[in-house]
């Protein structure tokens, strides 16, 4: 907990006391300082799988035939590739009409 507080710029003694209080009352109330630590812990990835999927998508988007794509064009293509629906489910007609 000390390392997390130092890394994210939180007060360690406040977080530690909040955790002690949390344990003493059986987890019924969470103090703001402990809630901040819990929020930062939730942002730490459990594995590197998402990052590896991103690199795999990058290799699919940036092929030998597309080596001249700039970052301005590559970034949206990767975002759509990773976040958008599968190509079979995409209905472009609504976008064309708008």
Structural overview:
This protein is mainly α. The chain has 2 domains: 2-42, no CATH class; 49-86, no CATH class. Helices cover 63% and strands 0% of the residues. The protein contains 6 helices and no strands. α2 packs across α3 and α4 packs across α5. The longest helix is centred in the N-terminal third of the chain and has 13 residues, at 12-24. It is elongated, with a radius of gyration of 22 Å. The N and C termini lie far apart (51 Å). The model has no long low-confidence stretch (mean pLDDT 86).
**Dominant shape:** elongated
Helix/sheet category: mainly alpha
Major β-sheet profile? none
Radius of gyration: 22 Å
Detail the topology: elements first, then pairings.
Blueprint: H1 2-8, H2 12-24, H3 32-42, H4 49-61, H5 71-83, H6 93-97
Helix pairs in contact: 2-3, 4-5
């Amino acid at each position: 907990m000390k390392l997390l507080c130092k890394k994210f710029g939180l007060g360690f003694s406040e977080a530690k006391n909040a955790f002690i209080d949390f344990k003493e009352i059986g987890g019924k109330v969470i103090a703001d300082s402990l809630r901040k630590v819990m929020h930062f812990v939730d942002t730490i990835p459990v594995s590197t799988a998402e990052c590896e999927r991103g690199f795999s998508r990058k290799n699919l988007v940036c092929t030998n035939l597309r080596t001249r794509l700039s970052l301005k064009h590559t970034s949206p293509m990767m975002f759509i590739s990773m976040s958008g629906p599968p190509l079979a489910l995409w209905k472009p007609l609504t976008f064309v009409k708008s």
